[in-house]
Amino acid sequence: MAAVIEQARQEPQQPSDRASTPVRAGRRRSEESRRAILTAAYELLAEAGYARLTVEGIAARAGTGKQTLYRWWPGRADVLLEAVTAHARQHIPLPDTGDHAADLHAFLAATFAAATPPTTDALRALMAEAQIDPAFGERFHDTLLRPRREALGTLLARAHTAGALAPHLTPATATELAFGLLWYRLLATHEPLDGQLATLLTRTLLR
Amino acid sequence: MAAVIEQARQEPQQPSDRASTPVRAGRRRSEESRRAILTAAYELLAEAGYARLTVEGIAARAGTGKQTLYRWWPGRADVLLEAVTAHARQHIPLPDTGDHAADLHAFLAATFAAATPPTTDALRALMAEAQIDPAFGERFHDTLLRPRREALGTLLARAHTAGALAPHLTPATATELAFGLLWYRLLATHEPLDGQLATLLTRTLLR
Amino acid sequence: MAAVIEQARQEPQQPSDRASTPVRAGRRRSEESRRAILTAAYELLAEAGYARLTVEGIAARAGTGKQTLYRWWPGRADVLLEAVTAHARQHIPLPDTGDHAADLHAFLAATFAAATPPTTDALRALMAEAQIDPAFGERFHDTLLRPRREALGTLLARAHTAGALAPHLTPATATELAFGLLWYRLLATHEPLDGQLATLLTRTLLR
Amino acid sequence: MAAVIEQARQEPQQPSDRASTPVRAGRRRSEESRRAILTAAYELLAEAGYARLTVEGIAARAGTGKQTLYRWWPGRADVLLEAVTAHARQHIPLPDTGDHAADLHAFLAATFAAATPPTTDALRALMAEAQIDPAFGERFHDTLLRPRREALGTLLARAHTAGALAPHLTPATATELAFGLLWYRLLATHEPLDGQLATLLTRTLLR
DNA sequence: AAGTAATCGAGACGGTACGTCTTGTCTTGGA
DNA sequence: TCCAAGACAAGACGTACCGTCTCGATTACTT
Questions:
Q1: Which of A92-96, A112-116, B180-184 has the weakest average pLDDT?
Q2: Using one digit for the tens of pLDDT, what is the confidence trace for D148-194?
Q3: Is C26 within 7 A of strand F by CB distance?
Q4: Model confidence pLDDT, tens digit, residues A128-146
Q5: From CA A51, how far away is CA A42, in angstroms rounded?
Q6: CATH class for domain A90-205?
Q7: Which Pfam families does the record match to this protein (chains A, B, C, D) (predicted)?
Q8: Which residue numbers of D have CB closer than 8 Å to C's CBs?
Q9: Span D1-6+30-72: which CATH code?
């Protein structure tokens, strides 16, 4: 868990940066506190669930003040979002081998592989919060949902151009079918997502 | 809105009944309060969103005490669930004309037609709450999700038996694809669900 | 300590009453919580001093919620004020024997006797808060200071009418001299107030 | 206001000095920051009252860092104390003309004259803080209260030696009566202190 | 008609977390 | 060594709701 989060921030990503003044006075943001908060949030979510995940609890577990959390994130959901995106970054490549079916299958398999127990809890919480807090919903969309949707859309557009897409489907709807299935399993049935399902989806979406 | 809710309870449905003692002494449940609470919850959701929908607010708007709400529902989400199911009941028939494609299309079109603005807000809130409160999640599942999934499953099983299902698909996965698309649009993209989409789905899921 | 506070409220005094509606619905104010809060405040003041006397601490010690305190008092200072006035009520009679010197001495001696260690801490805190929060200052004035000033003023007015007041003095200034000495000792020198001082004041203020 | 404070520091007074090393390396204390802090504190007190006078507010108004304030003063009260003593220094002479009544009256009149609106707010705040923070109370006592009490004590001791004190009074109690009246007016009644009152006090304390 | 029993609106209760504010300390880069 | 800037841990503030618990009043069924 900690290991995962420590990997984030390799490239100076500045997830919630403030200004662009090149030289600034004053103490700099504590990278240690940032990581402690992300880790604490992730751990507490696993232990107690999102309903009992509180800003106070995160700060206490992380050994920081609440103000430090509020200074850098709007609330608990954004902390979780950063933790998840930091984690998920490496796992979503965009294969382009020329074999559309292989590419699609690889993408789906990688996506499904990233949606496993520690992360699924966070994803479900984030999607829930996105419904409740529209402002967070937009950030969630921009940060997590859209990039993945666009990646798959690009992949499927290539297939479409090559005439490989199943009849009647557009890249957009095919994307929605794929992610719809993913999220429906996460949110509604809680069934696992495996390679077999990736195969089935590949066959259904392509000719 | 109020009209919709007033229609519910035609058959004595006892949404959250207590015991089965046939005759009991004492004052009987106030139907007026029940309706006022359902209406107030629905209105407040539309006005302020789920984040600001509170038990206190509902009771105040309905002109009842909080205890009256807690006596008959576990919490705000269950009030909303009853309001939605009362509304949605009439709209989900299970057509069986022999024409699988027509049946499926009719089912999907009816389902999509029910998922329109006043209701979609409630559905999104309910799905969110189901992620946060697992106990409610089960009730949500049993009351709303499963019945619809089973209806579509039955319909698609008939098609499957007749060999009309698209290759590789089982009735279960086809159901997930359909509802996955529905919920993905509700939760993630907020795009409308129209008859055209029902046609596309029908063509994709059937041969 | 507790004993003192329990004596308060003998006559239904209703220190911070709300409305005058004779019949009210709803649960009634908990006398137990009220007493627990007054006692907790008094004890914590003695143990930790006014600087560390917090609303949270009082509520925690009293075993009540913070809201219960805020429902009935504006803040910690008003709790202390009620505790002190409940305590001090019995100790301030207004003697009228005809012997002005004896009356004055009795009044001062009783006043000084009430200003002893457990109470003095509270009085100093109240006077301090009165300087910092003008709104509380007015309540402090109306509840505690003025009644005592008026009592002594009445006593000294009788002496004045009988020509017993020291030359140049009015009842008002004589009152200010007496209470000025009292408060100066409480706030500035922390010297004790004894019967000897009452005698000296009596001789100085009367002929 | 600013003018008053700028006059302070004529003799190098070092209000809260550190060590006695005569010559030290490094940047020297900024007299500009010191004055800005004193002025800002005084202004903010007048504008917002002691309750809203914060270290952060003072530093922001003064254009300094908080650390600069904490480096030279223990807290906001000590800043105010320095501002007041700087102001009050010139106004309290110790007359000795041989005419005890004239001397006393002059002393009282000068003292009362110094206790006027801009300063009274600070005095009331200081006396309040002295009750709440005992450590500051001692500094307040040593810096402001005792010197004045000793001055008046000295004056009255001369009168006592000459047999001019009112019967039963000692220089100490007479001093307490005078300052008690002063502070009671400042803290409790907020009535002004005028020359007439000085006359009355002179007549009461002397034969 | 009297008694019993459950519901109702009202609202106080003990809790918990919120998001903000301020404290006093620490860490920067510059003077 | 000091300074302005500003992040930090800590902790209290006053508020908002939660779900529970009295209350007196009302409404039904049972005797």
A1: A92-96
A2: 999 999 999 999 999 999 999 999 999 999 999 999 999 999 999 99
A3: yes
A4: 999 999 999 999 999 999 9
A5: 13
A6: mainly alpha
A7: TetR_C_11 (PF16859), TetR_N (PF00440)
A8: 49-51, 124-125, 127-134, 141, 145, 166-169, 173, 176-177, 179-185, 187-189, 197, 200, 203-204
A9: 1.10.10.60
